[in-house]
Amino acid sequence: LEDVLSVLSYSLRPLSRNDQVMFLKNYWCNIQGFRIKEKFESYANELLDEVLLTISDKNKEFTGIPLQTKMLIEAFLEKIETFYDQFNKNESNISIILDLMNLYRAFVVSKYKRHLLEKQILDLSKSGSEYDTLFASFEKKYSLLALCILFHEEDFILFLIEEELETIKLLKRQIQEGKENSGFISHIVAAKPIFIHFSFAEYFAAHFYSKNIKRKEVTKFFCHQVYGNEHNLTSIFFDEMVTADKHTCKMHIAVLNNDIEKVKQLLSNAEKAKDFINAADKV
């Protein structure tokens, strides 16, 4: 093609670590309007290391994609403002606390809204409840698709109902035909949807479990095959999702925080375990 068209070919490569740091640094500085500092670069490197470590991204594929790096910047905008205030006060030992669930939530919402705008599906400035309905449907569909990549069919048929299994078949067909594409799945291989990054599949799978954990078969499979095992990131997402409700998951929160006294207090104040332990706590 180079000879026929008389043009040079170009190949797209993921951003290198230096590219990622420069992207983070320049974008933040342009938004905030302050000058680049040496410590600012250190912060960017520390943030990238924390993200890659948490999601087990040894190949650095996640932040190698410019759009995802941009979403990371947007998610940490408030924290970088705090960091810069501390920098100006000459405070040291600035740590990064990675709120994984909200970080991914921000990624998913941002990417889905871009999809709606690009496809002109909805005017987000006038959407209201219509957007909420669309987003809830999107989350439900992709939560089912995520189970396909994490587990074999003989596994997920143990806890999915017939309607959900039929929905999965329909969604796979729509993806192959190009009718379903919100930007999170690149293609289908051997009947399995391939997410743009495996951690997104784990996020959506955790969403499914958090919404359906009260179902007996779902609880059984999750406890024996998912929670605390090789699906560590799914477990982390699940914990953060269910403990967002601090009123109904008191025991779950106490256990995660290793708060022995709180656990004892909850046990002593309850006449029956079922009075305070919900399905999430039983996990």
From TrEMBL:
Any coiled-coil regions, as ranges: 253-280
Swiss-Prot/TrEMBL keywords: Coiled coil
Protein name: Tankyrase-1
Organism annotation: Parasteatoda tepidariorum
